Amino acid sequence: MASKSKTTPGSKPGTLFYTMVSFGTVAAILALWAVVSGLKLVNPAFLPTPLDVWSEFWELCRHGYKDASLLNHIGVSMRRLFVALAAALAIAVPLGLAAGSSRLIRAVIDPVIEFYRPLPPLAYYTLLILFLGIGDESKVTLLFLSAFAPLLIGIIFSVQKIPADRIRVARSLGAGGWKLLVHVTLPSCLPDILTGFRTSVGLAYATLVAAEMVAAVSGLGWLVLDASKFMRNDIVFVGVILLGLIALAMDLVLRKTIARVSPWLDK
Asked: Does any domain span residue 91?
């Protein structure tokens, strides 16, 4: 007697299947890297083996880089990033909610946002250094500006697409002013705010290396750039992989948060 299939025809694969596919992709990339580097199809000076990168990672964990531990470099970069993101979120959310509800406020801020938003971050980084110096102030400000504009625009758009009937019903029930903002507008926009914040995190994180290019002596981005000057590509690979893994971890947290506050969205 034939055994019954555990899945019905047309049923979608489970989460485990897709997780295994993702792990398979990573394994395939590592295997290809090991083969290409092991056979020296690429100059070892430019493409170290996975074992060399792993060994250098543990060396950095033990002895650090340029008189600072690896954790210190990671911590400095994350502090700069998180301060900038916290400031962007704290300012963009109330300003975006207000601008989305008021055409006058949009008219005031729109020229400023649309002027600097398309500019490459390095284009105005020199100006930030002139006014704020070469310390963390200019770096944090650069990351803040990278994250602020897309987050603000996303919030404004989210407010504008709230159904008018929802607002009218809330007003008819006595909601108005701050109550309308806190109990209707903000909850309606929360999924879009988190999605916009996810985009802003990616943009600010991509700007992190640029922020640590000028007059920095610590940070993960600076470590990568400094190691590249001395052709220490094993250290460069360690730094790039760590940057990627940290980005994946932050994005995973944000995706889980979005899924929790928006369970109706298709995963």
From this structure: yes
pTM above 0.90, yes or no: no
**Which CATH number does the domain housing residue 88 bear?**
1.10.3720.10
Of 113, 79, 86, 84, nearest in space to 99 by CA: 113
Query: Quick one: pLDDT at residue 84?
Result: 95
- From CA 266, how far away is CA 11, in angstroms rounded? 16
CB < 8 Å & 24+ apart, contacts of 97-100? 97/155, 97/159, 97/181, 97/185, 97/186, 97/189, 99/152, 99/155, 99/156, 99/159, 100/155, 100/156, 100/157, 100/158, 100/159, 100/160, 100/185, 100/189
- Structural domain that includes position 92: 58-261
Could you report the average pLDDT of every consecutive run of 10 residues in the chain (267 residues)? 46 76 91 90 88 92 89 93 94 91 90 88 85 88 93 90 74 68 78 88 88 82 89 91 92 85 60
Question: Is 168 part of any domain?
Answer: yes
Question: Do the domain assignments include residue 16?
Answer: no
Phi then psi for 43, rounded to 5 degrees? Answer: -50, 125
Q: How far apart are CA 240 and CA 246, in angstroms?
A: 10
Dihedral (C-alpha) 93, 94, 99, 101: value to the nearest 10 degrees? 110
Give the integer Cα–Cα distance in Å for 92 and 156. Answer: 9
